[in-house]
Amino acid sequence: MNQPSKPLVAIIGAGPSGLYAAQQLARKNVDVVIFNRDIKIGGLAEYGIYPEKHKMRRGLITQFQDILNMDGVTYYGNVLIRENGDLTFKELMSLGFDAVVVATGAQWNRWLFLPGEKLDGVYYAQDVVYHYNGLPPYSAMDFPIGEKVVIIGMGNVSMDLAHFLTHERKVQEITAVARRGPGEIKFTQQELEAIAAHLNFPIVKEEIESAAHLMESLGQDPEEPIKMIESAIAKSAPRVSETHFTLRFLLSPVEILGDEEGKVTGIKFEKNTLVQKEDYLSAEGLKEFEILEADTVMFSIGNRVDGKFGLPVKNYSYCKNPNPRFPIKDTSYEICTETGEPIEKAFVVGWARKASVGLVGLARKDSVQGARAVLQYLDTLPAFTTTTLQDIDRRISQIEKPIVRKDDLSKLIQIENEKAQELGVEEYKYKSNQEMLKAIGLIS
Ligand SMILES: Cc1cc2nc3c(=O)[nH]c(=O)nc-3n(C[C@H](O)[C@H](O)[C@H](O)COP(=O)(O)OP(=O)(O)OC[C@H]3O[C@@H](n4cnc5c(N)ncnc54)[C@H](O)[C@@H]3O)c2cc1C
Ligand SMILES: NC(=O)c1ccc[n+]([C@@H]2O[C@H](COP(=O)([O-])OP(=O)(O)OC[C@H]3O[C@@H](n4cnc5c(N)ncnc54)[C@H](OP(=O)(O)O)[C@@H]3O)[C@@H](O)[C@H]2O)c1
Predict the structure, then answer these.
(1) In this predicted model, what pLDDT tens digit does every residue of 87-97 receive, in sequence order?
(2) Ligand 2 pocket, 181 CB below 6 A?
(3) How many whole angstroms separate alpha carbon 319 and alpha carbon 196?
(4) pLDDT tens for residues 181-206?
(5) Which of 50, 123, 354, 382 has the fewest CB atoms within 10 Å, measured from its CB?
(6) 56 lines ligand 2 (CB under 6 A)
(7) What are phi and psi of 268, to 5 degrees?
(8) Closest ligand by atom to 68 CA
(9) Spatial distance between the Cα atoms of 185 and 192, rounded to a whole number of angstroms
(10) Pairwise CA distance, residues 70 & 316, whole Å
(11) Partners of 335 in the beta sheet?
């Protein structure tokens, strides 16, 4: 039971941001209660980071388990906080916590609302990522993929998709398309290295050279992306399939084309030029069009937060108080309404605060700062809540579904590790929540 002299803070989400925030708060003698939609902890570290990065994933998950096992940290997994969820955000806010931290990430796809987006063979990156990374229910869904795949977007997630398509699905052809130029590539050399052996370098070089004049007029050096790609090829992992991989630039998708059976046949792009707008190079359409043939299209253009969570959304993220009471390094961690009114005791960290930006290390930094803002707020309270951990547990026990607590999670992790050893694989994941709950013994 928490002592009346200790503050009680709820954290929604057990991804990197929620867990690192919990660590900071628990270290300062705060009782922390984590609510997580997934049964397992880790968020995108468990269900986003490419499966082959075993060492990194194992390292993070071990760290996260240690955080969960800290004194003062309570865990409720398999609990969805949202409109029509197991509890609404409003209900959670009324349970008597001294502060509530939203760390739900940005786990939803961005949509462009183009004609043809509903055709068979059109996918959004997050769904495919969740599928190959074993997140229920995507893990058990079918994702038919053809031979000619166009990926819209040129960030690290696009490279992860290309990795999956060359290594697992072994498709014939992948074309990643950027709306801006070679100077605005968002993926890193390191991520390209995993698949660079599949690159059709002469075509990529020709593509960059055809943008050279425009790049030079903007003060960019076309040799830079060429060198980066050459360097990735030099360090590339070996080829694993016959897949050819190409990059195209300065093309914005305008329509996905399909046949009479509703299947994708291609994608129509508008050609772009680049225009300097203050500190941003903007893609501007030239009213000239090009069609690329494809039987599969994947949009990999970044994530957004959940629009049905119960909080207003701006720029794909939850709204922050523009005049924070507790700014940390000029950053606001305080949630506000659409009209900018602060929502008392509600804080936001990680990708929920700034959607789709940065690696786990950045999420950690953000949570450390966000936790500082929460601690400063707690310091202003004349007294802490009289609500106890038992009160919270009683309320959560009323939810009519199995709730996963710390011991259950440890058991699940142990069972999955044993299964992996038995099968001689690096990692074993149950495909559905039902299987996980059954393995733990929470359902029969
Ligand atoms: C495909 C992909 C690959 C990546 N690869 C790497 C990599 O290789 N290296 C690296 O450093 N970074 C990588 N990143 C970035 C990294 O995953 C993020 O920086 C980090 O996961 C963000 O952490 P977060 O806790 O804010 O959000 P998330 O990791 O998304 O965690 C959110 C948590 O909130 C929970 N949740 C969501 N909604 C609700 C709700 N309504 N109620 C209750 N709980 C909820 C979820 O179950 C989840 O546990 C990758 C990202 C993506 C998309
Ligand atoms: N291995 C890793 O380290 C790893 C793996 C995956 C993800 N991550 C991290 O996760 C974060 C998110 O990655 P991400 O790849 O999803 O996002 P990202 O890096 O922001 O890349 C998104 C891509 O989509 C394009 N795009 C956005 N809106 C578009 C539109 N309306 N039309 C056409 N194209 C559009 C962007 O082009 P513009 O530049 O023109 O906007 C960009 O090429 C990044 O910080 C990334 O580094 C890291």
Answers:
(1) 999 999 999 99
(2) no
(3) 39
(4) 999 999 999 999 999 999 999 999 99
(5) 382
(6) no
(7) -95, 130
(8) 1
(9) 11
(10) 33
(11) 320
In the chain, what are the domains? 8-107+304-404 (3.40.50.720), 116-301 (3.50.50.60)
Pairing between β-strand 313-314 and β-strand 317-318 as defined by DSSP bridges: antiparallel
pLDDT, average across residues 334-346: 95
Pocket test for ligand 2, best of 133, 179, 218 (most atoms within 8 A of CB): 179
> How crowded is the C-beta side of 383, counted as CA atoms within 13 Å?
6
Q: Which H or E run contains 149?
A: strand 148-152
Ligand 2 pocket check for 155: Cβ under 6 Å = yes
Of 3-12, 242-251, 421-430, the poorest mean pLDDT is in 3-12
Q: What backbone phi and psi angles, to 5 degrees, belong to 149?
A: -110, 130
Nearest CA to ligand 2 atom 39: 184
What angle do helix axes 156-167 and 125-132 make, rounded to 10 degrees?
A: 50
Give distance in angstroms: CA of 105 to centre of ligand 1: 5
Asked if the model's pLDDT at residue 274 lies above 60, the reply is: yes
- Atom in ligand 1 nearest the alpha carbon of residue 82: 41
- Give the mean pLDDT of 28-33: 98
Task: Evaluate whether 8 touches 96 at the Cβ level (below 8 Å).
Answer: yes
Question: Which residues does ligand 1 sit against, CB inside 6 Å?
Answer: 12-18, 35-38, 43-45, 48-50, 53, 80-82, 103-105, 107, 129, 157, 160, 306, 309, 350-352, 358-360, 363
Q: Hey, what are 250's tokens? A: 């300065």
Q: What residues does 31 pair with on adjacent strands?
A: 8
Separation of CA 217 and ligand 1 centre (Å): 39
* Count of Cβ atoms closer than 10 Å to residue 83 Cβ: 12
> What integer is the mean pLDDT of 335-346?
95
Q: How many residues does the chain have?
A: 444
The one-letter code for the residue type at 295 is D
Query: What's the pLDDT at 4?
Result: 57
**Partner residues linked to 79 by β-bridges:** none
* Structure token digits, residue 347: 């804080």
Ligand closest in space to the Cα of 178:
2
177 CB within 6 A, ligand 2: no
The whole-angstrom separation of Cα 58 and Cα 157 is 20
Tell me the pLDDT tens digit for each residue of 416-444. 999 999 999 999 999 999 999 999 999 99
Q: What is the mean pLDDT of the chain?
A: 97
Give the amino acid at 375: L
How much distance in Å is there from the Cα of 222 to the middle of ligand 2? 21
CA–CA distance, 368 with 266 (Å, rounded to integer): 46
Q: Nearest to residue 184, comparing CAs of 249, 125, 251? A: 249
H-helix segments, 349-388: 360-379
